[in-house]
Amino acid sequence: MAEYEYPVTDLVVVNYNKLQQKDAVEAANMYSACVEQGFFYLDLGDSKSDVILQTVNELFEVTKDYKPLGLDHGNVENQKDGCEGLRVGY
Known about the structure:
It is built from 4 helices and 2 strands; from the N terminus they run βααβαα. The protein has helices at residues 16-20, 24-36, 50-64, 84-89, and strands at 13-15, 41-43. A two-stranded parallel ribbon has the order 1-2. The mean pLDDT is 81.
């Protein structure tokens, strides 16, 4: 392993297709990664995972059209925002 300025670790790679096929070894591999490291790479590289990747891409597109809702516009220039009272007390 190459020397890095910051600590690095190798993450376990879990194959999604094997999980769908109920592969006990792959499920144990994922469980172990969750317990020991808390993270793992999810391999979506095989052709059966194309649907998931397409759905993820569509989800990212939805967030581009995000518009905040509600009546609270946040801070408005030259208007009190409620913080002034706290500043006076300190």
